[in-house]
Amino acid sequence: MFAIAMGFLETSVVVYLRKLYYPEGFSFPLKFIDNDIILTELLREFATMLMLLGICVLAGRNGTEKFAYFIYSFAIWDIFYYVFLKFLLNWPESWVTWDILFLLPFSWVGPVIAPVINSLTMIVLAWLIIYFTDKRNTVKTNFMIWSLLIFGSLIVIIAYTQDYIAFITKQFSFAQMMDISNSKALLSLATQYVPASFNWLLFWIGVLMHFGAIVLLLIKNKME
Q1: C-alpha 123 chain-centroid distance
Q2: What is the pTM assigned to this prediction?
């Protein structure tokens, strides 16, 4: 219920922003947005992470279960964000509609179906962790499971950010991108960005690593 409510709050913010900046409907390239709005959006995204951390700390009985509740809440929030957007704005038009997924530390973009796939994977992983924790008060993991989860996630993040970074680094170095004094010039350049491609190969490699971690987790806890 908490995550679904968060999804609606996230949707409501997007509805307001689109009425203000995209009354004709959202599409790339992005329109120039005032600096105070950008700062508010960045802080709001950081605040949502703190809210999810708060709920997982309250719900989890140990570190691994807290992690499970975090990714479970994140996934439910993300899925219902799109459900409410479809209900209120009839958007996205299709599963492959491009969207801005995250702004920290720079823009993540991809087809809508991609974060939904990640969310479903997170739900399955969280369910398994919570199930085995309920059954034996703990869940057995190992170095390989965590390595697959961490490196798989990094690969998925690269898939989301690769196209945007490739566009920006034509004019700015990575160090200049992280320099706050260049924020105005970066924002101006970002308004020219139109997604060109999504690296599905990289994305699926990361997702398959996540599935590998899920299978190993299942085997380890069923056999031991």
Answers
A1: 14
A2: 0.89
A 10 A CB-CB count for 32 gives 12
The closest of 103, 213, 199, 82 to 147, measured between CA atoms, is 213
CA distance linking residue 35 with residue 184, whole number of Å: 8
Q: What distance in Å separates the CA atoms of residue 8 and residue 14, rounded to the nearest whole number?
A: 10
**Which residues of the chain are under the pLDDT cut of 50?**
none
142 torsion bin: left (phi>0), alpha (psi -120 to 50), beta (else): beta
pLDDT at 104: 66
Largest CA distance in the chain: 58
What are the φ/ψ torsions at residue 104 (nearest 5 degrees)? Answer: -105, 135
CA 113, distance to chain mean position in Å, is 12
Look at phi and psi of residue 202 and say left if phi exceeds 0, alpha if psi is from -120 to 50, else beta: alpha
| Integer Cα distance of 197 and 100 in angstroms | 14
Tokens of 145: 């499971």
Q: Which residues pair with 138 in a beta bridge?
A: none
Domain locations in the chain as residue ranges = 2-223
